Amino acid sequence: MPTSTAVTMCGIIGYIGSMNASRIVLEGLKHLEYRGYDSVGFAGVLNGSLIVKKDVGKVDDVHAKLNFLEHNLNLAIGHTRWATHGRVTKTNAHPHIDCRKDIAIVHNGIIENYEELKNELVSKGHVFRSRTDSEVVAHLIEEEANNAASFEEACFKAFSRLEGAYAILAIDRKDYKIVAIKKGSPLVIGLADHGSFAASDIPAFINYTKKVVYLYDYDMVVLKPDPVFYNIENGNLVKVERPIQSVEWDAEKARKGEFEHFMLKEIMEQVDTVQRAADQDKKILEKIANEIKRARGIFLVGCGSSYHACLTASYVFSKVAREHVNVVLASEFPNYEHFLTSKTLIIAVSQSGETYDVLEAIRAGKKRGSKIISVVNVMGSSLARESDEFLLMHAGPEICVLSTKTYTSQIALLNLLAYTLAGRYEEGRRRLKYLWNVIYYLTSANTRNKIRKLAEKLADKKHIFCIGRGLQYPTAMEAALKIKEASYIHAEAFAGGELKHGTIALIEEGTPCIVFVSEENGKEILSNATEVKSRGGYIIGISPTNHEVFDFWIKVPECGTENPIVQIIPVQILAYQLAVLRGCDPDKPRNLAKSVTVK
Ligand code: F6R
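A: This is the predicted complex of the input protein with fructose -6-phosphate.
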């Protein structure tokens, strides 16, 4: 089966048990909305009949219209969609049902051979309603049921014919069970005394249980109050044992609490999350440091913010450990595959551990025998599974679509690795522990109020530029990304030295330019800031000390190799406040989803 599959985002949840399944699925969908939010659907069984409710819109809106809580059910499944296959319409929303209205399915992923299957099923008389690849699964189960002794056997036969990537939940109105399968898309099982859950991510059911089972690819689970686990990889239905694990964070972490948005909550959490990232097992870090020393050719790969963390790390590895690492965008990594050997080490950085491009990058390495080390936040994620060794950020769930706390955790962890590599683990840890005070100050109400005033000045701007040199260059890149995603203001980052090679032409009267200043490169970047100012630019200095070139100064204490952790925080706050002032939802920016599992 191909591993190079493009996968849709989306969130799925199912519950079976003695509690109100309608309520549990509705709550779960709200927790999964970060994965996709263009349409929502729900299915359950009431007195032997299938109930399906679905429409375009966010969970609250669709629920307000259709009332998912109309019936108190003991079995239900739900889906929140981020469309890639078939437009955003009610018909294309999940669940999808078979011709007889016996079977309902929800699916996260993409069925690559759906056209072939659909043609076959249409020729046998099946009538399709939607333009999705997913609907084929419902009809295929219906077809297989003609020659199967049970619903699970029909599911097994149907799932065995699927190519692509999928996490699917299927129900039959005549059977009290949910059949789940996972291949390539995330799916985790939750176990409680009153019933069982299957969901794309743990926050969907963390209010009810911390006992989870991470599934392997091709695991098929028959969810009854007591689930039975099978694996179908080799074409047979083989019963398997899967360990039950305990989630280390609690339900509170997945709630907004007193905060208006997860983004702000997660920005504020950095006081603790950086500390937790620093609490790594020294022995594992040393083991990885030895792998780095042994390797011939090291690549750091990631996407988006994680890529910026990689770029930051490459400077720190060079500065602290005198180690050369290549930094490559995961989506561009296949272009380097000719350099990969069994001596190559790939360090993959990903919050979710499910990003398609990152998984493809490490798979390219694995084909050539390269060693894979990953830095992830999600235990049990595909990346953690497929790596030889992994380091956990311990940042707790990041619900806002934008990375904030996991970005700083990634840098903290990679910095600690660089210090360990240089034989200075204790110093690296001490440096991170010192940041507690600094981050406390940077996230305080005082600082936030000050940044709010800046946000008010910038809220109507069309462009914002960010500049930095050395370690401050990737910080400028991350700053621009945060502003764009949260507020939809165009923002762009440049290395200070590059300005004069073209970009300075864009500076006009009042163009805002955020300048990241450190002791190391203060003189040069301030000189770039002066060049911008003399063309009319409005200079925002993120700097340990004030300077006459600044029109607005945000004080960030000098932290050396840890500057990238602390200097980004004011811009995270700025991006958040710009979003709020401009009426954008910072937790769910348009067109984005949390785990980018598409090519
Ligand atoms: C930006 C952001 C994205 C992610 C990128 C990689 O705020 O969240 O750019 O950093 O999609 O995601 P992970 O780290 O899950 O691989």
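The domain at 11-254 is CATH 3.60.20.10 (Glutamine Phosphoribosylpyrophosphate, subunit 1, domain 1). Residues 303-306, 350-352, 355, 358, 402-403, 481, 485, 595-596 surround fructose -6-phosphate (CB under 6 Å).
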